[in-house]
Amino acid sequence: MGRLLNYLLLLLLLVLLVVVLQVNLTCAGDSTVDPGNNNYIETVPENRANHKPYGQNGFFQQSPPTGRFSDGRVIVDFIAEYAKLPLIPPFLEPSAEYVNGVNFGSGGAGILSETNQGLV
């Protein structure tokens, strides 16, 4: 009887572990992964993609350009879809919830001063 109880307790713990596990995706990079963070930065208007031709006839066809430097989704969106996650929100989006991950990508990002002289 004690052994059966131990197995049932172990099974319960495994079920709880599987239920609690949450997959999330965190990304950092430049314009190749930017989901629209630059829309929320007032100091870099020349590094935004919230105008045509960006998003003109791609995945987000029914909405205005989203700030992605593509005609639709960026590579992080495809990775999220493969992982069965919703679109990963930009870090700077005010109403974003980061339960499934966060995207820190920003067009024009660089680690060296020479990358964007005058903006670093």
TrEMBL record:
Q: Where in this chain does the entry annotate a coiled-coil region?
A: none
Which InterPro entries does the record associate with it? GDSL (IPR001087), GLIP1-5/GLL25 (IPR044552), SGNH_hydro_sf (IPR036514)
| GO molecular function terms listed in the Swiss-Prot or TrEMBL record | lipase activity
Q: What is the top-level taxon of the source organism?
A: Eukaryota
For this UniProt record, the keywords arranged alphabetically read as follows:
Signal
- Span of the signal peptide: 1-28
Q: Which Gene3D superfamilies match?
A: SGNH hydrolase
State if Signal is listed as a keyword.
yes
An example of a Pfam family matching this protein is Lipase_GDSL
**PANTHER family linked:** GDSL ESTERASE_LIPASE, GDSL-LIKE LIPASE/ACYLHYDROLASE
Identify its protein family.
Answer: Belongs to the 'GDSL' lipolytic enzyme family.
The molecule here is called: Uncharacterized protein
